Amino acid sequence: MTVRAAVAGASGYAGGELLRLLLAHPQVEIGTLTGHSNAGQKLGALQPHLPPLADRVLAPTTAEELTGHDVVFLALPHGQSAAVAEQLGPDVLVIDMGADFRLANSTDWEKFYGSPHAGTWPYGLPELPGARAALEGSKRVAVPGCFPTAVSLALFPAYENGLAEPEAVIVAASGTSGAGKALKPHLLGSEVMGNVTPYGVGGGHRHTPEMIQNLSPLAGGRISVSFTPTLVPMPRGILATCSAPAKPGVSAESVRAAYEKAFADEPFVHLLPEGRWPSTASVQGSNAVQIQVAYDEAAQRIIAISAIDNLTKGTAGGAVQSMNIALGLPEDTGLSTIGVAP
Ligand SMILES: NC(=O)C1=CN([C@@H]2O[C@H](COP(=O)(O)OP(=O)(O)OC[C@H]3O[C@@H](n4cnc5c(N)ncnc54)[C@H](OP(=O)(O)O)[C@@H]3O)[C@@H](O)[C@H]2O)C=CC1
Ligand SMILES: CC(=O)N[C@@H](CCC(=O)OP(=O)(O)O)C(=O)O
């Protein structure tokens, strides 16, 4: 089977990473590529790491340009996907890498994104309990945010197994590509280099409701999430340190056993041997997730730490993994857990 795939937002970071993965996918033929301010430009000038596509010229991002494909990936800013998606036919597989269709609760959407809610699509984090079944055969997929990917994978075994109280505290470091390629003063080299700084502190980050949405059903009721992201001077990677109070009777052994069971058959999630800790460098450019979990007996807290590449498992790799499931292909087709080191 060969599927023809279009990529909207091909000039951006998420679009560029997606194209890197699609070039290595044995069942994908790359069709139309679109941009916005860069429409009319050759891709080689914008994504110089993709020589096989260097002479492709970006079309404008319109539904007309994107029709005639089996799969359309939308790697557009928040709020831009819905208008395009509604013009694509019901038989086309549309994979939105933005946030437009991630949240089920309209009030949360309006509060955190400040625009009308477009709807809710099956959620592209296959490792979450029940998620694979919803993706199989689906014609619409909402790819998760990068922080919710890292955090949900780190914490769901604790909630699914009734080990943690419903009060999670998360501090996560992200590389700057998470903020996209558009020019922003806080992303200038002179601001970022040699600097680590938090942002979105105190419940203001739009990924908080997405984490609550993912974890609450497993906790048997609404959980609270205190989330503090920090921007660190590296291009890629997320390290999420997540903790929650342990329920009475929890032990280091019961925590370890729950995490071993949760990830035993997962192709991309690696629970590290005890004593080894996740690192962003180890997952760079790969679709792997590294996880370690510990029980802090003195503080009576479960600490789960995950590392992902925000552009791979955190966006484009998750999108390809979800596409594979939706099309009935082996889930790992075209995806690797092999990183780049040092
Ligand atoms: N970066 C990351 O780690 C992650 C990103 N995502 C999501 O992926 C999507 C793309 O992010 P990212 O690649 O980082 O962002 P970039 O800023 O790097 O790229 C944005 C892309 O969208 C295009 N674009 C900009 N404005 C418009 C518009 N008004 N209408 C149509 N197209 C437009 C740009 O085209 P041009 O350059 O030609 O103007 C560019 O191709 C976002 O929704 C983001 O939230 C999700 C998870 C992680
Ligand atoms: C470092 C950085 O700025 N990261 C982004 C998250 C990027 C991401 O996952 O994406 P969505 O925008 O698709 O939700 C942020 O915190 O806003």
Automatic annotation (TrEMBL):
EC number: 1.2.1.38
Purpose of the protein: Catalyzes the NADPH-dependent reduction of N-acetyl-5-glutamyl phosphate to yield N-acetyl-L-glutamate 5-semialdehyde.
Domain of life: Bacteria
InterPro entries in alphabetical order: AGPR, AGPR_AS, AGPR_dimerisation_dom, AGPR_type-1, NAD(P)-bd_dom_sf, Semialdehyde_DH_NAD-bd
Record-linked SUPFAM superfamilies: Glyceraldehyde-3-phosphate dehydrogenase-like, C-terminal domain, NAD(P)-binding Rossmann-fold domains
Pathway, per record: Amino-acid biosynthesis; L-arginine biosynthesis; N(2)-acetyl-L-ornithine from L-glutamate: step 3/4
Active site: C146
Domain Semialdehyde dehydrogenase NAD-binding as annotated: residue spans: 4-136
Cross-referenced Gene3D superfamilies: Dihydrodipicolinate Reductase, domain 2 (3.30.360.10), NAD(P)-binding Rossmann-like Domain (3.40.50.720)
Annotated catalysed reactions: N-acetyl-L-glutamate 5-semialdehyde + phosphate + NADP(+) = N-acetyl-L-glutamyl 5-phosphate + NADPH + H(+)
GO molecular function, one term: N-acetyl-gamma-glutamyl-phosphate reductase activity
Keywords: Amino-acid biosynthesis, Arginine biosynthesis, Cytoplasm, NADP, Oxidoreductase
Primary localization: cytoplasm
Enzyme class per UniProt: oxidoreductase
Protein family membership: Belongs to the NAGSA dehydrogenase family. Type 1 subfamily.
Localization: Cytoplasm
Signal sequence range: none
The protein's name: N-acetyl-gamma-glutamyl-phosphate reductase
